[in-house]
Amino acid sequence: MNIDRIVLAFAGFAILVSVVLSHYHHPYWLYFTAFVGINLLQSAFTGFCPLAMILKKLGRSSGSAFS
């Protein structure tokens, strides 16, 4: 898996988990959902993604979105 697929999979997983937690635990978990969505949106325009930087340092192969 390259960095692009890992970032998208992690974002999807984080959103799903936070929605479930907001339903069963506390609605404040929706703030985490918003944070992930905002981070995805800004990375689409700027190319800056903290998770992508961490994965690059761990030696994962780069995709076309995060170089």
Write the layout of secondary structure elements.
Layout: H1 3-24, H2 30-46, H3 50-57
Low-confidence stretches: none
Question: Share of helix among residues?
Answer: over 70%
Number of domains: 1
- Report the count of strand segments: 0
Q: Radius of gyration, rounded?
A: 13 Å
**Structural class of the helices, strands and pairings?**
mainly alpha
Our measurement of the CA-to-CA distance between the termini, rounded to an integer number of angstroms, reads 15 Å
Sheet-strand content, in percent, reads under 5%
Note the main sheet: none
- State the shape: elongated
What series of H and E elements makes up the topology? HHH
Overall pLDDT confidence = 91
Number of helices: 3
Structure notes:
There is one protein chain. The protein has 67 residues and is an all-alpha fold. The protein is built from three helices and no strands. Helix 1 runs antiparallel to helix 2.
Key attributes of the depicted protein:
67 residues; mainly alpha; 3 helices
In a nutshell, what does this entry contain?
The chain has 3 helices and no strands. By secondary structure, it is mostly helical. The protein is elongated and about 35 Å long.
